[in-house]
Structure formats: structure tokens, C-alpha cells
Write a structure and sequence with these properties.
By secondary structure, the chain is mostly helical. The protein has helices at 17-20, 24-29, 43-57, 80-89, 113-121, 168-192, 197-203, 207-223, 226-232, 242-248, 252-280, 285-291, 295-320, and strands at 67-72, 95-100, 124-125, 128-130, 143-147, 154-155. α6 packs antiparallel against α12 (285-291), α11 (252-280) runs antiparallel to α12 (285-291) and α11 packs parallel to α13 (295-320). It is elongated.
Length: 321
């Protein structure tokens, strides 16, 4: 049937988030992954995946590079026996298999950060992996380890943490909360007490822009790489394309930096609306409110309000004369 109707989306699809992510918060976030394919797979795609899987299984013994295999014992998506077969059949002389008790399919994304990162640090030194056997502490994930027993050799795998050693997801979450909380007092003052001298004095300060700008720059430093530039400007005309942007914003760190960017621009626009309202004696509280999350709508609301009030004043003055 796949050869006759290769493009028909007839393969049953199951939501794997519950099976793949043990951490409940990360399981909820998985639903917002914009690059995750959520439709039923095509028959042709399913057939090719099956063929590819079979071909890989038939060539496991050709794997000869240093090998570190990590797999959750409670993985219901891919059976741990697959990783055991890779470990047993690979011709690598330097190989290691770690099976984690209680861990699900998305081992590096769906487990609690504090547990998986502690376990990773057990075998990671600066810049790479040392295949060493060490006894895990009580705070680490229980793990079953198989090692080829050869002298340690250095191999490299990515370690997703900041230069300070904190998980990037933790930094992104903290930055998101900090930025949101930081701008709320300024909006509150512009809405609750727009004509108070204290509000006018506070709004003149450049401190929030310096703080948020520094935070934004730091997040960009953590999230942007040469690959980021290639993803954004993948077009032959060197113009941003939507698929590339969607892929880029699938990262929590990139989303956090974009959120800080949005907050800074919105606050700056809201402050300009506020000052224009003071100068022209125009009501701006509704416009300032809209600027918080819908900046263009807030600016439009201010222009409409300003035009309506100006016209009303002109009619009043003409009536008096």
C-alpha cells in the first residue's frame, strides 16, 4: 500500500510525550515544540523508516569509534534491548553502556535537570567524556554500567550547560521570570499613578534598560552559535525564513532572549506613549496596558485616542469662537 499511496497520512499516530518525558513540566512544554511533527506519518515515510531501521540493525558491528550509550530502563518508546544489542555488536574497543533506573525515552530532555546533569557530570570532564567507572552518589540516577574494560580514552559529546555550570534551561527559566517581574512595577506606576512626581522620576531612569539589555546580551551569548546564523539565513538570498526561525525558537534559551527583547521594546514604547500623554494631556493608561504584551496595538490605540481627543478639542474651540 505504501508504494501505491506513499503520500497518504494513514499511519496511526500516538502522542509520545507521556511516554517520553518523565518530568511533568517538560512533558507539558513538549506540546509547544514548533518543529515537532504532529500529523499522522505518511505511508511512504513509515516504510522508509522501517527500511532504515533494518539496515542499521544489520550493520551495528561496523561501529568502531569510542562509544557511550545512555538509555532509560523504563523507556516505552525504544526498548533498552536495542541499546544492549548496539553495545554487544559494536566493534569499538572503547565502549560503555549506562542503563538508568526509572528513566524514560527522552533521557537528556525529559528527566529532571538536577538528576540527569549530576549523572552526566560523573563521567564528563572539561571538554569531553572520560569513560571511567565511578560509584554514583545517592543523589544520582541509579545506573547499570557496562564497560569494555579498556584504558580510558577521551571522546567528546555536548554538555548543555552555561559557562557557570548551571543548566541552560534553568538559566532561561530564571531570566524569563526575572525580566517579567522587573518591568511590572513601571507599568503599575504608569497605570495607577501616571501624574505622580515619583512616577515621572522613576520613568526617567535608564537602569531597567541597562539591566535587561545586559541580561539579553548574556542570553544571546549562551544561545547563538555560527549554526544559528546559518539556520536564520538559510535562503540563497540571505533572508530569514520561517522554518529556520521556528527551529531556532524551539530552544528555551532563544525563547527567553526573545522574551527579554520583547519586554525591553514594549517598555520603551509604553514609556514614550506615557510621556506623549503627559505632554498633550491625553489619557494613556489603556494604551500603556496594551503595550505590555501587544506593543503595536498599544501604539495604535494611543494614536487613535490622541486623534479623537485632538479633534474633540478643536470642535470645542471652534464652537466657543
Amino acid at each position: 500500500m505504501a508504494k501505491l499511496l506513499p503520500k497518504r497520512k494513514l499511519v496511526p499516530q500516538t502522542d509520545l510525550a507521556e511516554l517520553a518525558f518523565r518530568d511533568l513540566k517538560k512533558r507539558e512544554q513538549a506540546a509547544y515544540n514548533v518543529i515537532c511533527y504532529k500529523d499522522n506519518p505518511r505511508l511512504g515515510t513509515a516504510l522508509e523508516l522501517l527500511k532504515t531501521t533494518q539496515e542499521i540493525e544489520q550493520n551495528l558491528e561496523k561501529v568502531s569509534l569510542p562509544l557511550l550509550i545512555l538509555h532509560g530502563k523504563d523507556d516505552k518508546v525504544t526498548d533498552p534491548s536495542v541499546s544492549k544489542a548496539l553495545y554487544e555488536k559494536a566493534s569499538s574497543t572503547d565502549k560503555k553502556l549506562n542503563l538508568y533506573d526509572g528513566a524514560y525515552h527522552s533521557l537528556l530532555e525529559g528527566e529532571p535537570d538536577e538528576t540527569i546533569l549530576q549523572e552526566m557530570k560523573r563521567s564528563i570532564s572539561t571538554g569531553g567524556v572520560f569513560f571511567e567507572d565511578q560509584e554514583p552518589s545517592t543523589s544520582q540516577i541509579p545506573v547499570e554500567i557496562s564497560n569494555a574494560g579498556n584504558p580510558p580514552r577521551l571522546g567528546f559529546i555536548p554538555f548543555f550547560s552555561s559557562p557557570a555550570g548551571l543548566p541552560c534551561s534553568q538559566i532561561a527559566s530564571s531570566a524569563f521570570t526575572l525580566g517579567t517581574v522587573a518591568v511590572l512595577p513601571f507599568y503599575t506606576l504608569m497605570i495607577v499613578a501616571p501624574k505622580a512626581e515619583f512616577t515621572k522620576k522613576i520613568l526617567k531612569s535608564s537602569i531597567p534598560y541597562i539591566v535587561l539589555g545586559s541580561l539579553y546580551a548574556y542570553l544571546l551569548y549562551l544561545s547563538w552559535t555560527p549554526d544559528t546564523i546559518r539556520i536564520i539565513f538559510a535562503s540563497k538570498y540571505l533572508l530569514p525564513e520561517l522554518p529556520g526561525m521556528a527551529k531556532m525558537f524551539s530552544s528555551e534559551m532563544t525563547l527567553a532572549s526573545a522574551w527579554i527583547h520583547l519586554l525591553v521594546v514594549d517598555l520603551f514604547a509604553a514609556r514614550q506613549v506615557y510621556y506623549d500623554g503627559l505632554q498633550e494631556n491625553i489619557e494613556t493608561r489603556h494604551s500603556v496596558c496594551l503595550c505590555l504584551l501587544s506593543c503595536p496595538v498599544g501604539i495604535l490605540a494611543h494614536f487613535i485616542t490622541k486623534a479623537a481627543i485632538t479633534r474633540s478639542r478643536e470642535k470645542t474651540e471652534n464652537g466657543i469662537h
